[in-house]
Amino acid sequence: MIPPARLWSAVPVGLLSAACATSAGMQLAPEVGGCPEREASSAFGTIAWYVPSGSGDKASNERWCRTVGPPVVRTVPSVSPPDPADGDSLAVIGWNILIGGGDITRLLEEKLGYGCHPTAPELTAGFSHFVLLIQEAHRRSEAVPDVPESFRFPPRIVPASHPEGWPDIVELARRCGLALFYVPSQRNGPETVAGGREDKGNAILATLPLSDLLAIELPFEAGRKVAVGAMISLAGTRLRVVSAHLDVASTLYRTLTTANTARLRQAVGVVEALALSESGEITSGMVPVGSGGVSCGVRPHTIATVLAGDFNTWSAGESTVDQLLACFPDSAPWDGQPTHGSYPTDFIFFRRAAEGRIWRLDRSEERVADSYGSDHHARIAWLEWSE
Amino acid sequence: MRSPTRLLAAVCCISFLALAPGGAVEAQAQKTSGSAGAAIGGAALGVASGAMLGVTASLIPCTKTLSQLTCVRVSTLSAGLVGLGSGTLVGAWDSGRLGRSAKGAAIGFGAGAAVGFVLKEVVRQYGWLDVLSTGAIGMAIGAQPEGAVLGLGAGVFVGSILWLTVPSYGIPDLAAAGLIGVAAGGLAAWVFDAVEANSSEGAGVTIPFSFRI
Known about the structure:
- The structure holds 2 protein chains of 2 kinds.
- Helix content of chain A is 21%, strand content 29%.
- Chain A contains 8 helices and 17 strands.
- In chain A, the strands form 3 sheets. In chain A, strands 3, 4, 7, 8, 9, 15, 16 and 17 form an 8-stranded mixed sheet that branches.
- In chain A, a hairpin with a 6-residue loop joins β5 and β6.
- The longest helix of chain A has 18 residues, at 262-279.
- The radius of gyration of chain B is 18 Å and the shape is globular.
């Protein structure tokens, strides 16, 4: 029988010795196998997978990964908009579309003058190329595996309203003639709907070709999250674009034993994977979580990067935002506008490359006033470049 | 100006502040002698309760610093030390008082674990460790329920005023104020208990501005 005094004493000891649980070490996935999603993606041959190096994170991500379908890659848009030229601007839109509830088609038409069409979009004056960095995209497909319901799936999310036909992200990209990179993070419920099952995750849609695809499985907190990245080329200058979605919160036990660092840890995971990708290193663990230190990888950065996402932050003064601002120092200051109810959850972060041929325009960034059917407002930033 | 809904919520919070402590301040008991064994038990219960209160109170405020981990650790350690010292003294001087705290802690653990069990059935990602966690929080509060409840009322009261008057003060800040109140009240009650345990007049918690209903 353990004396009660020892049991009580275990509480503070457990709390104070929890530091090891907050590591966000990342590594390039040493092999593609293990998870059907990653195995399927090897067919594309171009996706670099980054995964957390912690065994607990790996095991949880692996289990969730088995329930989703393969990524979708269409690196070349079917539309042929004009080539980017000096002085043009690139619109970068970050948006959580609530499982297709957000009307992307209408937003593109009203904000960018882009009329969706598979081959010949209607362009209006002032058109600029654009990249959509999407969170909570959904895909409906028979390729999503049928797995036992003993796995406790997250419940299916069905938006209260949605655009006509409720197209999934694949159909939407086809209709609009856009390049697409979609990586599911988790199932959208266990149900089979219209002969197919649904998964959901982050996506990149663009009027420009995508290359150097990147999938970053975040440190596991409450559910599997995979950030997606790709490179686009603007008049010979490369720009990396990344879409990420962090957890709202972890379990109570993890919250107590990791000092509530769930979002910070996942943000650090993204930062570290991007740093590894840029430096070409294989393993790291260089960025401390919650210790006050900030490391953003090897400087100066050689690739200009935009990171947009739903970071699920409760305030703009949160450590997650501070961490990302420190690593993306050319970001616009927060405009004071919430994007999800009264919460400032969505941001666009930016950093220039050492050569600095791409920069953020002063008018960035803007919160889109209309939510277009989503429970989040989109944000738009404009980038400009020159030779 | 805040909406009527917020004003109504604030009135409820203020009412809670006035009413909640009433039933919680009547703990009257005879002073009993302490012992070395009770001092050890008091130290263990005090440090567990204090540390849990410290970590719970710091979880939200510490997200506003990059030194988040250090911030929570310092809070946990400080509160744990307060609980350790107070619990030791309470056990050394008044084992009966410590017994009541231990009983409250056990009841709090059970109540917290019951809440955790319900959460486990409802929240997909919750498991048995989360049931234990809610039990541990219940234990920390149950060891000093009067102080925790009064602190909660005070924290929510102050938070509500700030919520009504400061535009940038949001719901998470209000929740943080409540949790800080719980922790501050619980720790103050531990210190108060230690002081009372050493008094020659016996126990009896007297909290001004409170009444029974």
